[in-house]
Every structure is written in structure tokens, then in C-alpha cells.
Amino acid sequence: MRQMTITEKILAKHAGLREVAPGELINARVDIALGNDITAPIAISEFRNIGAKKVFNRNKVVLVPDHFTPNKDIKSAAQVKLLREFAKEQKLKHYFEGGDVGVEHALLPEKGIVVPGDVVIGADSHTCTYGALGAFSTGVGSTDLAAAMVTGEAWFKVPESMKFVFSGKLNKWVSGKDLILRVIGDIGVDGALYRAMEFTGRAVERLSMDSRMAMCNMAIEAGAKSGIIAPDAVTKEYVNGRAERPYKFYSSDPGASYVEVREYDCSGIEPTVACPHLPENTRKVSELRNITIDQVIIGSCTNGRLEDLKVAARVLKGKKAAKYVRLIIIPATPFIYNEAMRLGYFDIFLKAGAVISPPTCGPCLGGHMGILAAGERALATTNRNFVGRMGDPKSEVYLANPAVAAATAVKGRIAHPDEVSK
Amino acid sequence: MKLKGRVWKFGADMDTDKIIPARYLNTSDPAELAKHCMEDEDPSFAAKVRPGDIILADKNFGCGSSREHAPIAIKAAGVACVIAKSFARIFYRNSFNMGLTILESDEVYGATDEGDVLEIDVSTGAIVNLTKGRSFTARPVPPFMQELIKAGGLMESIRKRGFV
What is the maximal distance between C-alpha atoms in chain B? Predict the structure, then answer.
């Protein structure tokens, strides 16, 4: 039998095939189909247009209106109303709003709605996040979501896989965010186009689940179809007590084939920043001097998890954000929000002069809750720094990890965490 | 199907935020989205583009978000076809699903200037630059995608398969 990668094995299983090979077109069962307040309205309209009456499984269609929550204006409120009415009509098990809503890609793993071995599609490009659990998970558009809501299936071209092997010990202040930024800086924003990125090696095995999610989250920023990490003891510990369905651990065969294998020694990776206006424009933070910042955002589906808030609190403890710098911290889910409060991080953030926002995608995509004026510059723990991403087309966004973000807020310019905290 | 239109040229890595900024995604009304098409790259584009025009771009067109609003905005702005050296995968999929004609070609970009008139035979992939008198062939559309187009798009194909 063909030696397969973890991605090929999961896809084969969901297509009812013994084996699949890159390039093959398959129809696969989906375990979860996800939409949000931006993408689901179109999907719901497509669903109705062909005369569909019922979703294929009310437990497997998930709607999370997270992008403009709390609804920023009349139009976004109308979009969410559509989702809510559809969720009620279809008796969807998973619909989140108000005090229950969080950023979808933090919320679904946390609630155990996505589990290892799944095939997940989401009408949101960062759906690739769930690869951190050992699932095949990819972003699609609204029509693909509509089709899956009806059929419970999606078509895929089996992707080629690229392997990234990380060895060595992570330097202080370095997290999954820096590893993925380094990779994107090396291969470019289409360096993994149409491919699955498989992250492996001793350094990845030692990474926390939060850091793994940050890595897989940004696979799309290299153009990839998916990112994936083979499940292990860290995964098991994370999913135990959360998973709402039985799960399965898959791993790549020793003889599986890859179009490319890249090796990284983590001792050479420093805290990294992606400069405007593409995630591939990466520099070591130590190389960036005197870049003043107007706003710092700590949050998003990339870095709004508890580990991220913990390291931000560590850097910010007893410090204040520089005058004229707006520091906005956005815990990604209600659970993370509550934990951060319970652990005393909120005291540290508030004393530092931060604004603590309810969970929302908000400013990451220039929605609300921290929009930039022309000529303003932000450093954010988010995933995209495209032109106009966080506001005016003449504003700028730099991307970095939460420790760098916190240090930057204190200094009022892009700063290394060592400059602020021991 | 044959198309003839005037070219608007764009560079590499035209992301979905340039195609339709997220600040306008509080609606999915095609006419509303069309007003802001390509706005953060060329604020005057929506005003000057005419029905039947063609977008010609370098590599990785449509990278970034999964928003189907991107091909919807382009189509509603009147653009008949997008030709690029390559497309980001979600944009590629979305375009076939919602019916925006897209073609891949490495050669047309370097040999065509903005304002040139192209004639395109979508079924064969033949592209003629009428202004410069040069001919090209786009990369063939995969048979699976051709079937999808013939079926009338993804949703129509599902209806025909008897799911509804």
C-alpha cells in the first residue's frame, strides 16, 4: 500500500478510499462546516436559492458571528440576524452570540467542536488553524459552505505536502508565531500555494497547543490549503475532557512523500516581525530601530489565547504603555477572558493603560474596536498586514508575537521584550 | 464563449483586502460591493471600469481571505474575466463556484499594456492581444472545473445530483 502523509490518510478515510495521492480529486465527508457573520449570509442565501430545506446534520453546521461582534452597525446587525434566524430554524446545536461568542478559531477547538482526525471546512481562510489538533482543515468560500450544508461533503484536490522540521531549543520570547513568520519570510506568500504544510520535529513536539494553533493559523499566509501537526501527548491532554465526538490520531508514514522538506534549527530563530504590507516581509525584531507605533493589538485567532495573554502580562507587569500609544487587548473567547481575569492579568493590563475588549475579530480586519487613521502605524499579534487591513489604506500594520507587542506598547516603538522585561 | 475587452493591469499578490476591503463586508449586496472594487489599490477603478473589461494581474491574485465578496465585487463591477499568472486557491475555487471567468497565463502579463484590447475564447483558452497583434494560450481549465461550469456552478450541480 502507498505510504501516505497524515493529510492523505485523513482525506482517504473521509472519501471512503483506501488510499489517495496528490492531485487526485475526491469528494470527502466533512465533520464540521463553519460560517461567520461575513460569509454565512451568502451561504444561507445560496442554500435557500436551490430550494434546500434542511442542513445535512444540525450538530455539524456551526455559525459564529465573530467578525463585527458586538454588532458594529445596522448592516452588520442585519447580517447576524440572518444567521440567528437560520440557526433557530435549523435548530443548530452550535450557534454563539452575546456573552457566548468568541473568535471562531479559538472557540471551536476550546469547546471540543473540532477534534483530531476531522475534515473541517470553514468559510473563513483561517480555518486552517485546526490542523494544530491533527485535523485536515481548510478555508473555503460561501458557496462551498452552502454546498456542504446541504450535502455534508466537499470536493478537494488532494494537496501535495511540504514538510517543515524544527529542531533545537526555542530562544527566550520565541513562540509558534515566530516559527511560522520565519517560514513565510523564507518561502513567501505563495510559497506553499495549494499545498499542505506539515510541521514536525522535536521543537514542534515541545510546543504548547496555543503555539501550535498560531503556526497552523498562518499556513494560509503562505498560500497553503492547510497546515497540520501530528497529534501527540500534548494534543491528547488538550482534547481530553473537551472533545464532543470520538476522535482519531493519524500520523504520516515513514515513507510518505513530500514535494519539499525544509529544516530549521530553532536556536537561529529570534522574535520576528512582518513589516508592511505582506506577511513575507519579515525581519528580526532586533533589526528594527526607531519605528514608532500608535497602536498595539494583542488578540485574534492567531494570538488571542491564554498563553498569549500570559506572556503579555509577564512583559507588562508593573509597566505602563507609552504616552499616546493605544494598547488594546482582546481575549479570543469568553473562557479565555474569564481565565485572564481570574489569573490577575486584567489588573496588570488595566494598570498598564490597556483597553480590554470583549472577544471579537474587530480590528484585525479593520472592522471596529481600534481602527487606524491615515499615517498611523500599529503592531499587532494578528495575521495580515495588507494595505488598509486595519483601517485607512495609508495606515501600516506590523505583525509580531504577544511579547514583542507588549514591549512595543511600553516603549512606543518596536521593541525586543528583553528591553522591557527580564 | 468569446470575450473582448480592455485591460486593467495589476501587480503581484493582489490580496482580497485590496479587491474588497473588509470595512465594506457588512453587506453582501453585489452592487454595493462593486462600488469599492479594487479601492485600496486604485480608488478610481470602480468609476472607470466598464462592462466587459478585463483584469490582468501578476502572480497570486486573490490571496488572503476566503471572502466570496471578492469575485462578487469584480463581477458586479462589470469585469468579464480575470487573467493572472496564478491565483490563490480559495479565490480560484470561489470564482468557479460563483461564475467569474478566470484564466491562468504566464505570458500575457509581460506582453500586454494597460488599455490594450484582448480577445478571449474561454472554451479554448486562446487569448489574442488585438492592440499588439500577439496570440497566447491560457493554461487549460482542469476537466473537473469544466464539468462544474457545464453543470451551471456548484449549487446547481448539487441540485442536479438530487440532494434537494
Answer: 50
